[in-house]
Amino acid sequence: MKFPAVSLLALSVSMTLALAVNPASAAKPTAPTFDPKRLSNDVKVLSSDEFEGRGPATEGETKTVDYVVAQMKAAGLKPGGDLKDGKREWTQAVPLARAEIKGTPQVSVKVAGKAQALTQGEQIAVRAAQNGTTAIDIANAPLVFVGYGVKAPERNWDDFKGVDLKGKIAVVLINDPDFESGQGDFGGKAMTYYGRWTYKYEEAARQGALGLLIVHETAPASYGWATVKNSNTNTMFDVVRDDPASVHPTMEGWIQRDFAAALFKGAGQDFDALKKQAATRDFKPVELKGATLSAKYDVNREVITSHNIVGRIDGAKRPDETVIYSGHWDHLGVGQPDAKGDTIYNGAVDNATGIAAMLELARGFAKAPAPDRSIVFLAVTAEEKGLLGSEYYASKPLYPLGKTVAVINMDALDPHGPARNFTTSGSAKQELLDQLVTTAKQWNLDYVTDPKPEAGHFFRSDHFPFAKRGVPAISFGSGNDLVDGGLEAGKKMEDAYVADRYHQPADQWEASWTFTGMARDLQLLYTVGHDLADSDRWPNWDSASEFRAARDATASDRK
């Protein structure tokens, strides 16, 4: 298999980085050199306007699949997707339920007899119904505040306490009850799954609510209103379910914090006071007396087929044992215009960087002799719609999860210069993370635990569907202690991205991006994956991990 020639520039960059970060590593390289220019080009192509924001089931998906498959073929990979007539294809078909609001939704609230029309994307962000309904017609539904919307028997916690939500709209806070104080029954600042918006919609459906509105606040959500608006007012997707109403109430949406506070005040309640009460086990649901919501809009609903893209290198000795590198190829597609009138959500950092990284790793592995175990490069769809592509693969794996050694996920990597550290989404204790931390010492890279555990990143990346089924899995994150500028520069860059680019049309490729940090980090990720693929080790979760039992249940597969 041919490997594209490494440019002199890339070789020079790699040697410079190696000497700067770890002088000893220059004498004993442990991984191939990865090309910053090639990384830049892949990101530039995938995030160009021509790819229309890489929305699932659009022309942008077709172009993305064609490009990624072409690069995998050029690298020397084999197709690793669905079996057809005894042969593997390059993709795995992923059936999805697509829902889209027709026109502009008509939504209003009435407080003390006074009606107020709400503007989609301003005070409220209404999602297209995913419970199977195609016509929403809600008239004067009562509003009930149910705290954080959590029912956790194992924590002796119930925000609902027997309230009847039939025909009513529940209003909840984002994140966990511990967020404000940093201590309590929900892991302190670190978000549990109860803090995720996906859980809150599911629980509202289980409680029989007609609808659920989540109050947005930037700190506990970990992103601004622009992200909420752009992520929830466009086309919605879900996996195809036998009973979608069991996990989706009829109406789902978000409301701005200031609007919520005014709404509560009009109903004779103090938002901040109720928020403090909601952080306690004794909280009881509060009906917002005299406050109702009305909504009318139609929804186009259909089942479409999107695709995961799958390339493979067969293991030389144990090809039925698999190491997976993953990342999502999709972004938000075409949506509402920003202040400049741009409607294409290009998704350069999120996540053209992860796909570019995957392609570079594929090129590196294809150049080397085949390892003992197989390597799968899995580019998944519909991450932005709730990790749907990875959830589909994990629920219907092409290669048995019991013999999947590990998953290394890459999402929104830093395209600038190198850092002295790195992180992961969440910090669940497991041997795979231990190996990553130990291997990183070859480059004098320090590991820092997830700097924002309250953001719940562990539940927001494509490694999670694998983790909850027991497969050792991590999602790698670029460091913030930059070689050029230190922590101050790294934090400034990170904050600016979240505020000005994340899930916005401004997430575009920049000619100034050097990609030298990614090129160095890929040496670490390559080494970890290669060492696993050339060994007979099976990393596991810590004995106290909530994922250990699921892994141990498949132990017989690994004998």
UniProtKB/TrEMBL annotation:
Keywords: Aminopeptidase, Hydrolase, Metal-binding, Protease, Signal, Zinc
InterPro entries recorded: M28_fam, PA_dom_sf, Peptidase_M28
Signal peptide: 1-26
Top-level taxon in the UniProt lineage: Bacteria
Domain Peptidase M28: 308-522
Protein name: M28 family peptidase
